């Protein structure tokens, strides 16, 4: 089940007895669990109606026992258990022995006064396992995959609106370009910018560029975008800014090469008919990064990209062997690729 459908059902007060949450979008998963908690548990009952467990420290049979225990002084209870690694294909490194038969029995006959939430940060579940098949059959599984590019744009715009401000689609694109695709970081930067702008005000591109704190990786992401657009002055400005932040030139070259390698890989996979979402999964990068790389790749043929990567490999060797002054070497590279 897609998480938006689960949210819709919860808003209608249609609660499932069990939710198995999995995926790599941890921020969305945490927000979903908080929303479920708010909707299912009266805040005044929280101390008696809410239990938390870590399945790396507690067995699933003990969790099920708690779920089945009648609530004390409250009408219902919510039991949340993290690190349900035994439902994935990864090796469970904890020393806890889980009697999964007890969970299987409970799935077939859940109590009506409790909701059990199992969650795990994992790209996928092991669908060969009996428990996973059973939970999938009963539609108890909620997935939290990375947002697609258009979904991420909508998420940013809705988050800004929730914080009392407004933002255009173009400015939302700029926000993602500057802040990255990590939802937790985006949420924090959005809150900061909205506080600065004031209630009812619009977030502008200029404001975003002034206020958003960019990581080294995000600076490189924008630097490469400026290289692609043949905007040498902007590329040099970002490079000099990185030097002022004491970033090592060899690391800068490595990150530039990584970004151009992604552009080449996206171009190659796109030519073979892969969708952007399939490419994101194949390369283990965010779908939004694939969207940008796909757009950038259209401005080069494959040989151009290979030549750029060769230049970066040669520059890396020259820098490490002392044949060229590091900063000067990067400046020359930027001039060459902008010719």
Secondary structure elements and their pairing?
Layout: H1 3-11, E1 18-23, H2 26-40, H3 46-49, E2 50-54, H4 60-68, E3 77-82, H5 100-108, E4 114-121, H6 130-137, E5 141-144, H7 149-162, E6 166-167, H8 169-179, H9 183-197, E7 202-203, H10 205-211, H11 216-228, H12 232-244, H13 249-271, H14 276-283, H15 287-297, H16 302-320, H17 326-337
Parallel strand pairs: 1-4, 1-5, 2-3, 3-4, 6-7
Describe the structure.
It is an enzyme of class 2 (transferase). One of its GO terms (cellular component) is DNA polymerase III complex. One of its GO terms (biological process) is DNA-templated DNA replication. With 339 residues, the chain is an alpha/beta fold. The chain has 3 domains: 3-144, Rossmann fold; 149-211, Helicase, Ruva Protein, domain 3, CATH 1.10.8; 216-337, Zinc Finger, Delta Prime, domain 3, CATH 1.20.272.10. The protein has 17 helices and 7 strands. The chain has helices at 3-11, 26-40, 46-49, 60-68, 100-108, 130-137, 149-162, 169-179, 183-197, 205-211, 216-228, 232-244, 249-271, 276-283, 287-297, 302-320, 326-337; strands spanning 18-23, 50-54, 77-82, 114-121, 141-144, 166-167, 202-203. The strands form 2 sheets. It has a 5-stranded parallel sheet, with helices on both faces. Strands 6-7 form a two-stranded parallel sheet. Strand 3 (77-82), helix 5 and strand 4 form a beta-alpha-beta unit. The longest helix is centred in the last third of the chain and has 23 residues, at 249-271. The model has no long low-confidence stretch (mean pLDDT 94).
């Amino acid at each position: 089940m897609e998480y938006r459908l689960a949210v819709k059902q919860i808003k209608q007060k249609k609660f499932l007895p069990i939710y198995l949450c999995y995926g790599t979008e941890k921020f969305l998963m945490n927000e979903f669990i908080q929303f479920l908690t708010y909707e299912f548990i009266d805040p005044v009952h929280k101390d008696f109606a809410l239990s938390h467990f870590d399945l790396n420290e507690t067995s699933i049979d003990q969790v099920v026992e708690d779920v089945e225990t009648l609530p004390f002084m409250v009408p219902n209870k919510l039991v949340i258990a993290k690190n349900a690694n035994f439902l994935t294909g990864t090796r469970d490194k904890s020393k806890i022995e889980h009697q999964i038969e007890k969970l299987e029995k409970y799935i077939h006959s859940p109590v009506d006064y409790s909701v059990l939430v199992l969650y795990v940060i994992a790209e996928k579940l092991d669908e060969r396992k009996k428990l996973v098949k059973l939970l999938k059959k009963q539609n108890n599984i909620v997935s939290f995959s990375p947002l697609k590019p258009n979904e991420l744009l909508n998420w940013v715009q809705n988050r800004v609106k929730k914080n009392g401000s407004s933002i255009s689609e173009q400015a939302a694109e700029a926000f993602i370009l500057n802040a990255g695709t990590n939802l937790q970081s985006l949420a924090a930067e959005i809150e900061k910018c909205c506080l600065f702008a004031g209630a009812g005000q619009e977030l502008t591109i200029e404001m975003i560029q002034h206020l958003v704190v960019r990581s080294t990786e995000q600076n490189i992401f924008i630097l490469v975008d400026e290289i692609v657009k043949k905007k040498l002055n902007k590329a040099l400005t970002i490079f000099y800014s990185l030097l002022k932040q004491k970033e090592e030139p060899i690391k800068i070259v490595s990150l530039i090469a990584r970004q151009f390698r992604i552009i080449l890989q996206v171009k190659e996979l796109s030519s073979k008919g892969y969708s952007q979402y399939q490419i994101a999964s194949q390369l283990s990068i965010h779908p939004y990064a694939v969207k940008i790389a796909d757009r950038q790749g259209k401005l080069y043929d494959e040989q151009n990209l290979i030549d750029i990567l060769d230049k970066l490999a040669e520059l890396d060797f020259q820098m490490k062997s002392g044949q060229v002054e590091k900063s000067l070497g990067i400046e020359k590279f930027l001039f060459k690729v902008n010719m």
